Amino acid sequence: MLYPPAPAACGQDPLAALNEEQRAAVEHGDDPLLVIAGAGAGKTTTLATRVAHLVAGGADPNRLLLLTFSRRAAQEMQQRVAAQLQAVLGLPPGSKGPLLPWAGTFHAMGARLLREQAARLGLDENFSILDRGDAEDLMGLVRDAQGLSSKEKRFPLKGTCLAIYSRAVNSQAPVADLLRENWPWCADSEAELRSLFRAYEDAKRHQQSLDYDDLLLWWAEMMREPDIAAWLGERFSHVLVDEYQDTNRLQAAILLALKPGGRGLTVVGDDAQSIYAFRAAEVRNILDFPSAFTPPARIVTLSRNYRSTQPLLDAANAVIALAPERFAKTLWTDRAGAERPQLVAVDDELSQARWVCGQILARREGGLRLKSQAVLFRSSSHSAALELELARRRIPFVKYGGLKFLEAAHIKDVLSLLRWASNPRHRLAGFRVAQLVPGIGPASARRLLDAMDASGDPHSILQAFEPPTAARGDWAPLAALLARLAESSDWPGELAAVVEWYLPHLERLHDHPAPRHADLEQLARLAAGHASRERFLTELTLDPPQATSDEAGDPLMDEDYLILSTIHAAKGQEWSSVTVLNVIDGCLPGDLATATPVQLEEERRLLYVAMTRARHHLALMVPQRFYVTQQRRFGDRHLYGGLTRFIPPEVAARFDSVGPATPSWASGPLTPPPGPVLDLARRLRDRW
């Protein structure tokens, strides 16, 4: 359905609340557009309003492709667009405006398009998508089959092999270059790795499976076919991309193939916040975007900040201004605030932890909740001393990270059964499920899977399988369940049947099944929001929940808690008060991230991202020395730290200097004990 332009009297003007820069981006025509959105500059509002403006102006929502980096971002965009359309179109309260059926992550949209074109691409439309764990296991099986686990020289483990493969796919860089720059100890294994990757591709093709990286690789390869590229380019009148600075070379190639002339293409991002090179994100994508078209794409810069006070912005602007290549912008705000950011010098990591805890408690007593305060760090290990001090002072905290939902054993068991039912050639899933039956070990499972692989009708082989005598009683219910699932379209009833079969095995396999029951209930709730088994498995793999009850600690009973987070995980977040640990050379930038100018500049952007998370209070911690746990041949076990090279004297002038901090337990100078004067020099000399 097309939505004609709405009369002004029909509703409210959604552009009225925008500033001049945002309005220019929203009202831009169909020529290619790059929106450089500074931190806290209202990026999401601008992009959502542009989508609503297009729809209100007559664009068909079914022909808008909106690409994000998380399903939650796509859902938030949907909600904002719907709210604005409700206003501009004058829709009655409670009514639903037009949906955006093609809004989601690159990987999710790629999976949908690949299923549509599966027959032409030589894929089964029910192909399986391997999550990272399954992909690593398959790489391990192929590695063993290639005889690489029995080499006399050290060969990379399966996780490292998958990391190298993934970086090669997403960066489109030669394997030799990647090994030299990131895995130099693997450089002499290049030939074996190439052979391994070819065998890994063969294994996936035989199992009718794609891994996470394939969803982009196959989409990009599909776009090399001129007729498919032209058809998709016409199918989507507008393509809008959020967080463009986080795209890799495959994603950029897909976009340029969709819109080679740039017409209808809008990308939004900030080169100063490109910090995911370890995921193969390529900052050059956004830096080179304008010149990819003739005439060059229009650039609209959002520089008004709605988050931080001006003294904090002045410091962040000064840090990023030293970057040798960037889109120039100076963040500004009209928010009141006179407090300058702090550079806090402390003696060591223990003193750092004490100072941070003291400030956290002081701000809490001043009315700032713990949830409004965050401590950020370059590496997860940097918070170890702080965590001990927080526990000692009984300050509750939450640290981002932990066991992922799909990595929990009981979740993998249930999902593997669903995947095997959908794709009987999914060898990893079958190998796992078969061994859930008591009496079936690796040899019996392998015998079954080999027979299924050799047959043109794997379902019949599975039903005719003769298990070991000890397993016959438990095998029959599994075979019956798999037969039912092969014919069923009763979703989410299929999951309920799987869980019903699995619960006795859960009780048998795990000592503490109660929290795992809760995860299975959560899985059922997630299933209810999907139309089919295939959509459920696809979306759960592409955008999984981030936590699980499996191996969980005691529940957090406090109503308030401090936030601990790596800087990478903090991107997109904001807090009233932010403290950044270990802002010294060797930690930020990291000592392994200074090999090339490209790596060094990403570390500068990492500091900038950390600083721009703060609304009112910002402190950068500078320990004068820190202890190391590795054995050292000479000297004691500590290193001296210097303020990060990203804050030279002219930038440091934007901060207030604090410290060295006095430990909280020191109440004044120590008074020496009374007694006679000691001639220690003579005493020590006389020893010889």
Which key phrases capture this entry?
single chain, about 700 residues, alpha/beta, 17 strands
Summarize the SSE layout with pairings.
Layout: H1 20-27, E1 33-37, H2 43-56, E2 64-68, H3 71-88, E3 103-105, H4 106-116, H5 118-121, E4 128-130, H6 132-145, H7 158-171, H8 175-182, H9 190-206, E5 209-211, H10 214-222, H11 226-235, E6 238-241, H12 249-258, E7 265-269, H13 284-287, E8 298-302, H14 310-321, E9 342-346, H15 349-365, E10 373-377, H16 384-392, E11 397-399, H17 409-422, H18 427-434, H19 442-454, H20 458-464, H21 472-487, H22 493-509, H23 514-527, H24 533-542, E12 562-566, H25 567-570, E13 575-580, H26 597-611, E14 614-623, E15 625-627, E16 638-640, H27 649-652, E17 656-658, H28 680-686
Helix pairs in contact: 1-2, 2-3, 4-10, 6-7, 6-9, 10-12, 14-26, 15-16, 17-18, 17-21, 17-22, 18-19, 19-20, 21-22, 22-23
How confident is the prediction overall: mean pLDDT?
83
Strand order of the largest sheet: 11-12-10-13-14-9-17
Helix % is: 40-55%
Radius of gyration: 29 Å
Shape: globular
Low-confidence stretches: 1-11, 547-557, 628-637, 662-670
* Protein structure class: alpha/beta
Query: How large a portion of the residues is in β-strands, by DSSP E?
Result: 5-15%
Termini Cα gap: 99 Å
Number of DSSP strand runs: 17
Task: Count the DSSP helices.
Answer: 28
Could you describe the largest sheet, including whether it forms a barrel? Answer: 7 strands, parallel
